[in-house]
Amino acid sequence: MPGGVPAPAPTALVLHWRLPAGPAPAWVRSCQALLQTNGHFRLAGEPAAARPAAPPGPSAWTVCIGAPPPSDDPVANLWWISDGDGCPLHPQRPLVHSITARRGLALRLWQRRQHQWVCVRHVHLAASPRYGLGVQHLARAAAQLLDQASVDLALGVVGALANAPVPQSSDSSGPVWLALLRGRWRHWLGRQRSRWLRERWRLGVIDAPAHQVLNLPGPPVVRWLEESAGWGYWADPASSGSDGQLYCEYFDECSGVGHIERLTLDEQDRVVDRTPLPLGDGSHVSFPLVLQIDGRRVGLIENSVRRECVLFEIDDLGHWHPISILLRGVAAGDPALFVWEGRYWLAYSDADLGVMDNLCLQYADKLEGPWQPHANNPVKMDISSARMAGGFFWHDGVLHRPAQNCLLTYGASVVMHRVVRCTPNEYVEETLGHLVPDPTGPCRDGLHTFSAWGQRTLIDGKEHTLSLRVAGHKLWRRLRGKRALAPRSLARTP
After folding, report:
1. Rounded distance between C-alpha atoms, residue 267 and residue 152, angstroms
2. Which residues are CB-contacts of 48 (< 8 A; sequence separation ≥ 6)?
3. Is the N end or the C end of the chain the one with fewer CB atoms within 10 Å?
4. CATH for 13-174?
């Protein structure tokens, strides 16, 4: 592993399950099946010959479901899975109140250390509020927790998540039947919103540097730019490195394809010129980023459709020239570069793992590569704070990472983090604050980009509006997709 510490082969842990009385729930059986396919685990009682030979080490762990075991439990290695609030999982209807309340599917993994429970892993996935649909991801979430914890053990990573709740012995939520009814109602409302409402984004400017925006005494005053003409909108703003100019995505609502444009603003922040850039060869591109690295001005865009991440160099005339392909075969969403302790790092969301709920890292000793994946990708699985919301930026020796909160809707708000530790084997960050849309403003339904622009800050915001034309386009696309999937009748032989 160039430039890093080689990751040791994970020990094939022997996994015991301690469950409440009665047969094992279906989600536990599904989780066991998933874990058995990755080579990191074998169930207690399974013949050792059924698994590859494992290196020596502490290989027996017990996973507890239900109430947390007492502190004097004689078992040496204990894990306990709780909900996102630190409460035990309901034996028949796990996470029913969280899922039906549109809070998603959240789990925490606790490890007993010196007779205390320490939260070592957390996963938070989007889930339909209709319980039968939302709970389908529970087995995947639990398997993700245990799989990454096993890698941490192999790498010797000993850590604890900050701001974790205190473990609870019971959950005092309301009746299950009422939660199920509310979940079905919320699911129906969500389907109607997605069919009939139009998502319209606008660019905005805040007259304060990025590091001060979260510390303002009240909501920041945003000066919203004019809307683009036609059936399309501007989003994903980023500094161009030149005064009065910025890059952004222009999304065509009719074709469903976005491209990158350079906008020139006057002193009143009115758009006086727009220049489309020939990037992506006609495929959908978005999320432009520009930064200075090693005395060069380089740029990135998202082109996950083509499953590659290209590094560009930008000349004095604003032309983008490809100089290297950083990633091949990876559907990298919202990629962003940063430098940490002499290494180059690339952060992105892997669309094969989930469009909005994961953060992955790659690193290299040279900007052009070769790039190596982090030993425990994805380093974060959280629908409320994983996907990038703009580029990294430094202030007073602190590296800031803006992220999207996509729990209730795509790009609902921005969450700012402070990077604490970043190595080939470990990644730790802390939450600094949230930037939420003004409920009385013109873009009250979302914010999903936060970009430093000198002494000012660029953002974008969205509003949901009723549009019969957009609803018609959505219906036409659904019908066209169903026709494409429908089996064709065989031609009759004469």
Report:
1. 52
2. 42
3. C
4. 3.40.50
